[in-house]
Design a protein that fits this description.
Elements (H helix, E strand, L loop, with lengths): L2 H8 L3 H9 L8 H22 L1 H11 L4 H32 L2 H21 L3 H29 L5 H26 L6 H7 L2 H13 L4 H6 L3 H12 L1 H18 L5 H5 L4 H16 L2 H6 L1 H7 L4 H29 L1 H28 L10 H16 L2 H12 L5 H53 L8 H8 L7
The protein binds beta-D-glucopyranose.
The site of beta-D-glucopyranose (BGC) has 9 residues, from α8, α16 and α21.
Length: 487
């Protein structure tokens, strides 16, 4: 069957198919798959939104629940980071439930968790209820973070899978950015504005639930449940009859090889040891350099430079937009420049920016070279934007791309789950400790610490990162984790 017939047989209008072929464009998601992927990627949006929306609430819940001062700082850290601890439980639960319940039902469950969490946190009168509500949202975050990309990868045709899965990444940073926007606009509602900031998420969560009702179950999951007729119907609906038959055969031949249980030990010893060390290392540096401390406490950090709270919220919006813009740049560059150059340039930029933030706070506090203390608020804003830009073009997206590439087919899912859990653990610890570090070391000491970790991260990448650009997954497996040959 010709490429044109394939496209038409699938889901593309004949005139559009002619245009693609005429222009030699071979990678183009079909409309139905694209719409389904967009609907599911709204889960990524909710993950980003739910995680960072707290940044706007921090100044208000600190007052409302009495979490101020050095004594309250760990409690404040707990209020902010509890979502991360819930997300770790969500990671683990997703691994078990997405096979048992199916992808679609698990995603529906996450939308209900997002909804319940938003409403309960918004209405909470005491600290325990607030924390429980945020943990409940965290369960949704952890489960959606792993299940949305799996669903998209399982329904997408092979040739567009990469870009459709990246859509989920883009939605995460869009969710982060929109949470800064909505916090900025809701700030005018006064002392109770934090309730609106957290509650407004009920709207996209409800929309997510309704959209998910319209999508089919993952054909790969249906086949794993021996529901071949249902799987065929879904594949025909999204890819067309001919392509569906081919996909069905491919999936069936792959299924037998997939199911294999691993002892954790197996991942840490033998041929996987080198890639696991790299995976753990890059996941550590992605979080230990403070991205989520910055995102979750952004207006608080800006307020430390002595500015108005409202301008601190405005600056957060700007930083959110930088994050989205540079993520798009990364998606564009990653297959052109390669992973390692992006990582090296980006982490070097992160180190310089973090050390600059530390310097700005240090000199502002001591007032070096001036009679009155200097406020370097402009410099802090520029350096934070530069840090986020450097992260968004490197460690942010590149870590996830490399984790999906460096492990061999058989072990990929298990290895990513373990490294992803570790990444969430480091993130939750960093966001838990951040207020305590601010109270103990001050902002300068805290950012010098993150800057030094970024410098160490650069060294780690230069010494240990492989280049994965342009190689097939099978070539990478042979190169990075060669099977032991028996003599
Ligand atoms: C990280 C998240 C972070 C986000 C920021 C992701 O790659 O894993 O922890 O919040 O980037 O854009």
């Amino acid at each position: 069957m010709s490429r044109r017939d394939e496209l038409v047989e699938g889901f593309t209008h004949p005139a559009v198919a002619d245009a693609y072929i005429g222009e030699g464009i071979t990678i183009r998601p079909g409309t139905k798959v694209f719409a389904i992927a967009c609907a599911v990627a709204l889960g990524g949006f909710l993950v980003g939104f739910d995680a960072t929306v707290i940044s706007g609430a921090v100044p208000f819940i600190r007052e409302y629940f009495g979490l101020g001062g050095s004594s309250g700082s760990l409690k404040l850290g707990w209020a902010v980071s509890c979502l991360g601890w819930g997300a770790m439980a969500g990671n683990v639960a997703a691994g078990m439930l997405s096979d048992r319940l199916g992808r679609k039902r698990l995603l529906l469950l996450t939308s209900l968790l997002f909804l319940a969490s938003a409403l309960t946190a918004a209405l909470s009168e005491n600290f325990v209820v607030f924390v429980m509500a945020r943990i409940c949202g965290g369960l949704g975050v952890g489960a959606a973070l792993l299940t949305a990309p799996v669903y998209i990868a399982e329904i997408a045709p092979a040739r567009t899978r990469g870009s459709l899965v990246s859509l989920n990444q883009l939605m995460i940073v869009s969710g982060i950015s929109l949470s800064f926007f909505s916090n900025y606009f809701l700030l005018s509602l006064g002392d109770d504005c934090w309730r609106w900031m957290l509650g407004i998420q009920a709207i996209p969560a409800a929309a997510y639930f309704l959209l998910l009702m319209l999508i089919p179950e993952s054909p790969r999951w249906l086949l794993s449940q021996s529901r071949e007729q249902d799987a065929r119907a879904v594949l025909e609906m999204v890819h067309g009859a001919a392509a569906a038959e081919r996909e069905l055969t491919d999936i069936k031949s792959g299924l037998g090889q997939q199911v294999r249980r691993f002892a954790l030990r197996e991942l840490l010893t033998g041929r996987l040891r080198k890639v696991m060390i790299f995976g753990f290392g890059i996941a550590f540096f992605q979080q230990a350099t403070g991205i989520n401390a910055i995102f979750y406490y952004l207006p608080t950090i800006f307020a430390q430079t002595g500015g108005e709270l409202s301008s601190a919220f405005g600056q957060s919006v700007f930083v959110g937009l930088v994050n989205v813009g540079m993520t798009i740049v990364a998606i564009w560059l990653i297959d052109r420049l390669g992973r390692k150059p992006l990582l090296c340039a980006g982490i070097a930029g992160m180190a310089v920016s973090l050390l600059t933030i530390g310097w700005a706070f240090q000199t502002a506090h001591t007032g070096i070279g001036a009679d009155a203390p200097v406020s370097h608020s402009g410099l802090v804003l520029v350096a934070i934007a530069a840090f986020v830009a450097s992260f968004a073009v490197s460690l942010g997206p590149v870590m996830w791309v490399m984790l999906s590439e460096i492990f061999p087919n058989e072990e990929r899912a298990a290895a990513i789950a373990v490294v992803g859990f570790w990444n969430s653990l480091v993130s939750a610890s960093v966001t838990l400790l951040f207020p305590k570090e601010l109270a103990t070391w001050g902002p300068a000491g805290t950012f010098f610490c993150y800057g030094s970790l970024a410098a160490a991260g650069l060294l780690f990448i230069v010494l240990l990162a492989p280049e994965t650009k342009g190689k097939s997954l099978e070539q990478l497996a042979a190169l990075l984790a060669p099977a032991k040959t028996s003599r």
